[in-house]
Description:
By secondary structure, the protein is of the alpha+beta class. It folds into 2 domains: 268 residues, DD-peptidase/beta-lactamase superfamily (Beta-lactamase, 3-Layer(aba) Sandwich); 109 residues, Methane Monooxygenase Hydroxylase, Chain G, domain 1. Helix content is 28%, strand content 18%. The protein contains 11 helices and 19 strands. A hairpin with a 2-residue loop joins strand 10 and strand 11. Helix 1 packs antiparallel against helix 11 and helix 2 runs parallel beside helix 6. The relative contact order is 0.17.
Amino acid sequence: MLKPVQKPESLGFSPDRLQYITDWMQRYVDDxxxxxxxxxxxxxxxxxxSKSIGLRDxxxxxxxxxxxxxxxxxxxxxxxxxxxxxxxxxxxxxxxxPVDEFIPAFKDMQVLRPQARNIEDTEPAKVxxxxxxxxxxxxxxxxxxxxxVLGDYYEKEKMDFxxxxxxxxxxxxxxxxxPLLFEPGARWNYGVSTDVVGRLVEVISGQDLKSFFHENxxxxxxxxxxxFGVPEEKLGRYASAYMSDGKGGMALLDPAxxxxxxxxxxxxxxGGGGLVSTAADYLKxxxxxxCRGAVEGGRLLGPRTVDFMTSNHLKGDLxxxxxxxxxxxxxxxxxxxxxxxxxxxxALSQMMGSPGDFGWGGMASTVFWVDPVxxxxxxxxxxxxxxxxxxxxxxxxxxxxxxxxx
Length: 406
């Protein structure tokens, strides 16, 4: 469970201004745009604000509570990146190592020619994909929801690493037979790169990704409700996922008790989007980032490794690397580290924040970030797909920062 909420004034927040966040969540629920929401704000490791509004399941009228389990989708990516960097700290690979040295299926990759009109219009890749390319989404891979020839091909071939798609090894080898969108390292493109990172964790560690996560991350952090699926005894706490009904309201997308993430059905451990968790659990992971790798009784990563991960690894911002906007958020003034965004210049991004804040979101409109300047961690949960439908993340940034008064 979450820790008790402290007096906001003692942590530099105005109670009256924090009410704006409650009102904001309530409006989305009252207007029938979101079923349920939860926001948690911690500063210096103490919780200044924690509130849940609405329902985790409309049909059963079950309220969204602190122990509600949700699909975190791409918020799995920072976890998988941390896992690989734990192996990096042991000297088991270098970031500039070619991926094919660990996964031979990635040898002799093909790349789509510029202006290609079909999936066969390719040429041999001139450079080999590296581990760093994967961690920074500069591998040349994509997602099926991205426009273009390759995105359409991914969609047709169901290249999404869904929970029932087979094993991670099998799916990664299938991916390696597909062409790349561009030469590795040429630009940034959001895609399935982190699923390959998860497979690298398996190959280098000799464990499947689920076992590695539990032994090295979830157990040390006491993340008891986080996994690649939901067991039968916890399905009562699992939220249903919704989408737009095209009329300003919601339609059921993935009912909790019939979800693709019901544990007995999960066979593919997607490091890019497969984790289910709770606010309390994921806050522990985010707080580990804020504490630069430290956890109670030890640490997961060295502090300088976390600093390295949360630094910008691009030449310039994401806009200069081919991605001016992603989801509803401008990427002008925003860079990318190893597993998440890095705020570079808040004024240029036209979003409130601090230089160096680091985080990422998920397809069901979830988001988290860690702010080293304000010594703050923010977590927002809901279950509405896609994340670009409402400007939730931009609005939340404003709401959080306007409430700070110290």
